[in-house]
Amino acid sequence: MSKVKHVMIREWIEDQIHRGTFVEGERLPTEQELMEQFGVSRAPVQQAMRALEHGGVVERRSGAGTFVSGAAIRSNLLNYLRPHRHEAQEHGVHKVLRTRVTAASEIQWCENIFSPSTPVALLDRVKLHTSGKPLVLERTAVNLTLAPAILDQDLEPLNTIPYYSTIGLQLSRVKTQITAELLDVNDASELELDSAVPVVCQHRTVYNDPDTVIESALYFTHPHHLTLEVTQNVSH
To answer: In this model, does residue 76 exceed pLDDT 60?
Structure first.
């Protein structure tokens, strides 16, 4: 069964962006050019563009055309599994939402990760694109017996894994799980999402030795601004 025309157009544009044919900030072909290319009327082209705009892939500027959005994250799925992954994959800044100190037993998602009595620092931040759009909601629990001064740091730019190295903590291993999750209403609002929309969740646990956890963190990525891909090199 052949694809409906607006889906075919949308998928072609997405593929060209993922291939790097159209890059961030670049103007896309006009509606007229797409009509001629695909041999269709204006309606399916406009429907495809509306879907891409709603998904955060493109930005439509009145009188100027349609441009590849700067708020779309393009990430190799395998990067999520790299133990020392800490560099930013998208431009932007962090906004600190809240911090507090508590026992690990009070945190549901840290169950069976820390010993129940372990004191932990909780850090909630949201990563904002340079356009101001929210990209990632981050929730981090840090073992205070290993990193007692974590909350005294400048928390907006802080990358925790490099910080651990500066205080003499060595990484033994990193465990990563990727799931689809539904956020509660308050967390969904931080990403400007309806709570019925699922998000991609990366749960990363960092170990100081085979059994001692330094950090357990959740990263909830806005689904409209994320493309996960896997690149395989094929030898001949």
So the answer is: no
